[in-house]
Write a structure and sequence with these properties.
This protein is an alpha/beta fold and 372 residues long. It has a single domain, classed as Glycosidases (TIM Barrel). 41% of the residues lie in helices and 14% in strands. The structure holds (3S,4R)-3-hydroxy-2-oxopiperidin-4-yl beta-D-xylopyranoside. (3S,4R)-3-hydroxy-2-oxopiperidin-4-yl beta-D-xylopyranoside (XIL) binds next to loops.
Length: 372
């Protein structure tokens, strides 16, 4: 064979492999079809996805997902950066994307200690607000934000991450100021937030959302206590979100089952709201955004075949538990669409940095097929 012929054949082979790779994601099973009798399946979308600046991620979302959460744009810092200033454009873009693609939109989140500006908790002289003043600010925020999207958001994460890992309430400015150090008032900020969210949109579902419920029984019991407290006061809560920022070796099947079954036993819906699986073997395991640093997101072994195999196995295990409890689990949302834009780095999702479905994707589909 002459050199020219060989070169031509090599070029042809490279072209065919390349074309094959481009096509690889196109005729794979569609996740929202695969799970259509089980639960909604969704993703967290960043601004690039909803504004068309990441068309490949948007295409994956439109094809596979039927529910969406804005990764950041409804958070207080983004949507209400200054006292008299709301920034609606990014959240409006998110809503437009959801409506165009007929996706169930989820609002994330109303009351949280993170990504909330300092001014929220201070008066004009920089002193801590009084309980009444902070409650008034919380009410104004919730009525305004929930009111604006009334009828268009299926459910709100009303309170996010109010618990410590040991199940006690986190010492956030919300608890400090509204709870006033009193045991009797400790749940007041949560109760008020749910009352106002209900008033602003009586038809929207209202959720409590947290991480680590599947790895700490005490924390899960703390979430159960929140639900019971709200119900005892006649305050509506419709669901609890298990964020489920997992790792290659956690949670255990038992831990996840404990969370799903004990939360469901209170009568609320259970949803997995922020699923990803950290591929880093070392470092901080929780999902406190103050502790997830750039360094903790580096992972030299992320793409190794062995890592991807473990990732696929863990996803399969998690989905087998969720499918077993499909009558209680109403939604499973991934925290991101593909590895290139994940908040924790490494390779924690079902699609890789070139937007191709990974071994984990096929493991999830297979698990669904085996658990019909
Ligand atoms: C993360 C986002 O993914 C990042 O883009 C942002 O910088 C920090 O917040 N728990 C939550 C989410 O409830 O809102 C967090 O999202 C991840 C942990």
């Amino acid at each position: 064979m002459g050199t020219t012929q060989t070169t031509t054949m090599v070029r042809l082979a490279v072209f065919l492999i390349g074309a094959g790779a481009c096509m690889a994601g196109e005729d794979v099973p569609v996740l929202k079809e695969v799970f259509k009798n089980d639960f909604l399946i969704g993703g967290a979308f960043n601004r690039r996805v909803v504004t068309g600046r990441d068309p490949q991620a948007a295409a994956i979302a439109a094809k596979h997902l039927n529910t969406a959460t804005a990764e950041n744009d409804f958070k207080w810092q983004l949507i209400h950066p200054r006292r008299d200033e709301y920034n609606w454009a990014p959240a409006d873009d998110f809503m437009a994307f959801c409506e165009k693609n007929q996706m169930v939109a989820i609002g994330h989140c109303l009351v949280w200690h993170s990504q909330t500006p300092r001014w929220v908790f201070r008066d004009d002289s920089e002193n801590a607000l009084t309980r009444d003043a902070l409650l008034a600010r919380m009410k104004d925020h919730i009525m305004t934000v929930v009111g604006r999207y009334k009828g268009r958001i299926k459910g709100w994460d009303v309170v996010n991450e109010a618990l410590n890992d040991n199940g006690t309430l986190r010492d956030s400015p919300w608890l400090q100021i509204i709870g006033e150090g009193s045991q009797d008032k400790q749940y007041d900020f949560i109760e008020s937030a749910f009352r106002w969210a209900n008033e602003a949109d009586p038809d929207a579902e209202l959720y409590y959302n947290d991480y680590g419920l599947e790895t700490s029984k005490a924390k899960c019991d703390g979430a159960v206590a929140i639900v019971k407290h709200l119900k005892s006061k006649g305050v509506r809560i419709d669901g609890v979100g298990i964020q489920l920022h997992a790792g290659l070796t956690y949670p255990s099947i038992q831990g996840l089952e404990y969370a799903v079954t004990s939360l469901a036993a209170t009568g609320v819906k259970v949803m997995v709201t922020e699923l990803d699986i950290r591929t880093q073997a070392r470092g901080y395991r929780g999902a406190d955004i103050g502790r997830v640093t750039r360094q903790s997101t580096q992972d030299a072994n992320a793409d190794a075949a062995e890592t991807q195999k473990k990732l696929a196995e863990k996803y399969a295990e998690i989905f087998s538990v969720l499918l077993k409890h499909r009558k209680d689990v109403t939604r499973v949302t991934f925290w991101g669409i593909y590895d290139g834009a994940s908040w924790i780095g490494g390779s924690p999702l079902l699609f890789d940095r070139t937007y191709e479905p990974k071994e984990a994707f096929f493991a999830v589909v297979k698990t669904a097929q085996e658990n019909q």
